[in-house]
Amino acid sequence: MLVITGGAGFIGSALVWYLNLKGIDEIVVVDSFHRRPEKWKNLRGLVFRDVIPPGEVFDFLKEDDRVDLVINLGACSDTRETDFEYLLENNYRFARELCEECLRRGIRFVHASSAATYGLGESGFIDDHGFLPRLRPLNGYAFSKHLFDLWAWRTGMLDKITVLKYFNVFGPNEYHKGDMRSMVAKAYDQIRATGKVRLFKSTDPRYPDGGQMRDFIYVKDAVAMTWFLAEEGASGIFNVGTGRPHTWLELIEAIFSALGKEPVIEFVDMPEDLKGQYQNYTCAEMGKLAKAGFSLEKITPLGGAVKDYLQNYLIPGRYLGDDVIDRERRSW
User: Fold this and answer.
1) Active site residue ranges
2) β-pairing, 197-200 with 265-268?
3) 210: closest CA among 173, 237, 247?
4) In Å, how far are 86, 139, 196, 292 from 127, measured between CA atoms?
5) What is the pLDDT of residues 181-230, one digit of tens each?
6) What global pTM score does this model have?
7) Which residues share a beta bridge with 51?
C-alpha cells in the first residue's frame, strides 16, 4: 500500500491516474479541501482505497503497517503566498515530521521540492547536493521548499529518501489552481475570451519580449519520472524536467497551432511584485535521472504535449480520471 499526500491535487491526482493505468489501486489519498474544494473533481474516475485529511496521516501510519511507500506531494504551491508561517508549517514542518515518521517505520519516503528553489539559476540547475547552500530562492514558497532540502542534506536524510525538483509542469487536472495554473491553461482561456494571449514584457536586456525561457514538462512525463524513481528506490535529489528549455513564444505558438489559429500576442508590463522574483531562464540538468536508468527519449516533445492537453482534456473539459473510466468500459 502507498500513501500520496496532495493526492487530490494536480501532480498527485495525475500520479494516481498513472498508477491506476498500471493496475495499482492500493492507494490512500491524503489531502485538504479547505482552500480548493473543487479539487474533488480530480478524483472522479480514479481508483483508490481511501481519502484522509493531513492531520490524520500520522495516526494512519501507526495503525496500518501495510504502508511501504509515502509520496509527499502535498504543499502550498502558490508562489505569491505572503503568509510565510503558513508556508513554513505546510511545506517544511509537516514534510520534515512525515519524513522522520516514515524512516522510523521503515517506510520509503519521496518528497516534492521545486525548481523554484534554484532562484535565478546563478549556480545552475544542477541536482547535486553540494550546490544546495549556494541556492538563493526568490519567494517564500521557494524558500519553504528549500528549507526541507537543506534539512535533509544536513541531517544525512538525502542518502535515505528521494527529493524531486519539479520544473514547469502543465497538463490536465490543474484546473483548480486558479492563477497558479500553467500558461497553457491560462492562454487557452485568453484565446477563447479575446482571441489573443498576453505575455509579460522582458525586464532583462538579455531576453527579448517573449524570449524568456522555461523548462516545460508535461504532467504525464512528470509522474512517469516520479514513479520510476520511487520504484527504483533511488536516493538523493533529482530534477524532474526535460532538459530542453523553450521560450514563451514557442509555447504560445504551440498553443495556437494546436487550436488551428495564427498567433496573436500582446506584451504587457510585468507587475511590480514580480520584478526581481521572475525566473527568466530555467533548464533542468537531466544527467542524474538518465544515469539512474530513465530514458529521456520517452519525454513528450512540447508541441505534442500541448496538443494532447488542449485537444483531449482542456477543450472537451476532461479529467485524467475519465481515461481510467474509458479503459474500464473497454474491458467490459
Assistant:
1) 141, 177
2) parallel
3) 247
4) 27, 20, 37, 13
5) 999 999 999 999 999 999 999 999 999 999 999 999 999 999 999 999 99
6) 0.96
7) 29
Mean pLDDT, residues 133-142: 95
Grid coordinates standing for 308?
A: 494532447
pLDDT band at 326 (very low <50, low <70, confident <90, very high): confident
Alpha carbon distances (Å) from 324 to 9, 12, 105, 187, 305: 17, 15, 33, 27, 19
Q: What is the CATH number of the domain that holds 238?
A: 3.40.50.720
Domain that holds residue 23: 2-169+217-242+282-299+319-331
Q: Which three cell numbers stand for residue 127?
A: 541536482
Query: Can you tell me the distance from the alpha carbon of 300 to that of 317, in angstroms, rounded to the nearest whole number?
Result: 21
Per the structure, the count of domains in the chain is: 1
Specify whether the CB–CB gap between 242 and 184 falls below 8 A. Answer: no
- Cα–Cα distance measured from residue 283 to residue 229, given in angstroms and rounded to the nearest whole number: 20
Q: Give 296's DSSP letter.
A: G
